Amino acid sequence: MPTAFHFDMDVNQLKSWTENVSQAVMIVNDCGVVVAMNHPFQRLISYSVEEIEGRAFFHFLQLPDSFQAIRGKVTWIQGELRAKEGKRIRTDIHMVQKQILGQNYYVLIFYPQISLMMNQWFAHAPFGIAIVDVEKETLLAINSFACSALGIQEDALYQSIRRFLPKGKKHKQLLSFLKSPQRFRGRLEIEWNSKYLLLTFTPSFDGEANCFFIEDVTKFKLLEQQLKYNNRLATIGQIAAGSAHEIRNPLTSIKGFLQVIRNKFEQMGYQKEQSYVQIMLKEINRINHLVGELLLLSKPKEMDLTSVQISQVMKEILPIIKNEALLHNIHIHIDYQTSSHVEVLADGKLLKQVFLNLCKNAIEAMDQGGRLTIRLMHRKKKQLVVEFHDTGSGIPEAVRKKIFDPFFTTKENGTGLGLPICKQIMKEIGGRISVRSSKEGTVFRVLLPLV
Ligand SMILES: Nc1ncnc2c1ncn2[C@@H]1O[C@H](COP(=O)(O)OP(=O)(O)O)[C@@H](O)[C@H]1O
Ligand SMILES: [Mg+2]
To answer: d(Cα 205, Cα 174) in Å, to the nearest integer?
Structure first.
């Protein structure tokens, strides 16, 4: 059984202990003569037992202070080992003093390169580390990750931490966290220079300095916010779907009775009243349409995925958009860069709706007239690209992020449901929709799987 180090060991026990530790160990007597060492120590400096034992330790080890100055202390020191053939090894040394039968012995345990490695690890760690002097409120150490996360320079070292803490309400909270005499791990999440940082407190041994790990959790935070937002949208979608059904049923009966009344007025020759009812019916149709869109968005219909000839879809939408375009002085151009017989895997009716929504938006974006180009192209990975290119005023960056959100609209009479529906349908089909926009206009690009 390996002997554990204890202060009551005799010389032999001490020697046998050295053999069982993995670190290099040397034992020196009061006169500075090496009385024992272990194998790791021999290997480290490449000398044999005979070459080491009985010689003064300074042949093998150089210390910054004289031996007289440091002996008598249980301490950590730094030194340089002199190995065979002149090789020098910088090392941290843990020195323990022991008295055996009235004689002083010094046990030196070597940790070569550790401080160097620790320094490098500290400097290049993939997370921030900062050490704060609690009493002086200064920075004792900081690595480059922490500097860039906190947005400070390395010359902040030994300066008051108050100088670079964010101002305002957070300032006090952070200061007391950095100075807190915590004995256990503590955490604080803060917003700092538009980043989210997580500070983890690790207690130090003496309580004079506090050490912090600093992680940049901005990405996680943004993801979390996005998730919350999506959940909210999903809830809105469910409520919308629920209410849509409830609205649709009474509407059907109102519509039916209004039709009866309209016919009655017609028979009686009440022209004015008949026109009022006509308006009411038109408005009900509008509500019905809106409710239909809501239902589609929140609970997509069963998909009927079959092979759809793209030219057929184009043929069906063209008369509708041509009419609209004519009204707004818009020229429509269809650019087939692929065979018009090409077939995609989709639900024909829903695909038509996607194309219509995109054309409608394009036309609405060109109130002063313009040109709508629908371009169909082949892509390598068995995909068809359909682009809807308008010469409208484009979509500002801030707006672009939101256009696929349900109910987001910049139009007075918009529903904000067109694009979310397109996105939903594309998702169901297994395609994709994307947008790019500039001041010259907007391009919506739809990717469809070919049959
Ligand atoms: N081609 C386009 N050019 C400019 N803006 C567009 C275009 N298509 C969509 N948008 C913007 O996206 C918003 C959302 O569109 P959509 O979901 O179809 O709802 P709606 O058309 O009812 O506003 C529009 O209000 C508009 O601001
Ligand atoms: Mg729209």
So the answer is: 22
CA distance 242 to 39: 79
> How many whole angstroms from 410 Cα to the centroid of ligand 1?
7
- In this structure, the residue with its CA closest to atom 1 of ligand 1 is 362
CATH code for the domain defined by 306-449: 3.30.565.10
Domains 11-112 and 125-216 equal at CATH topology level: yes
Distance CA 28, CA 1 (A): 25
Domain 125-216 adopts which CATH fold? Beta-Lactamase (3.30.450)
Residue spans of the domains in the chain: they are 11-112, 125-216, 229-298, 306-449
| Distance of alpha carbon 138 from alpha carbon 304, whole angstroms | 68
Q: Which ligand is nearest to the CA of 417?
A: 1
Residues 20, 43 contacting (CB under 8 angstroms): no
Per the CATH hierarchy, to which homologous superfamily does domain 11-112 belong?
A: PAS domain (3.30.450.20)
**CA 430 to ligand 2 center in whole angstroms:** 22
Residue whose CA is closest, atom 18 of ligand 1?
A: 418
pLDDT in tens, the chain (451 residues): 445 566 667 778 888 888 888 889 999 998 889 999 999 999 999 999 999 999 999 999 998 887 777 776 657 888 999 998 888 888 888 888 888 888 888 889 998 877 677 778 888 888 999 888 888 888 888 898 998 888 888 778 888 888 888 777 777 878 888 877 665 567 888 888 788 999 988 766 556 778 889 999 999 998 988 888 777 777 777 787 778 878 888 898 999 999 999 999 999 999 999 999 999 999 998 888 888 877 777 665 677 889 999 999 999 999 889 988 998 999 999 999 988 889 999 999 889 989 999 999 999 999 899 999 999 998 877 899 999 999 999 999 999 999 998 889 999 888 888 998 899 889 888 899 999 999 999 999 999 999 8
Contacts 24+ apart (CB under 8 A), 84-92: 84/45, 84/46, 84/47, 85/46, 87/46, 89/44, 89/45, 89/113, 90/115, 90/116
Q: Confirm or reject: Cβ of 406 under 6 Å from ligand 1.
A: no
438 lines ligand 1 (CB under 6 A): no
48's CB contacts (< 8 A; 6+ apart) are 42
* Residue for token pair 């080890």: 61
Is the CB of 424 inside a 6 Å radius of any atom of ligand 1? no
422 CA from centroid of ligand 1 (Å): 12
Residue 408 Cα to ligand 1 midpoint, Å, equals 8
Give yes or no for a contact between 63 and 79, defined as CB atoms under 8 angstroms apart: yes
Model confidence, pTM: 0.54
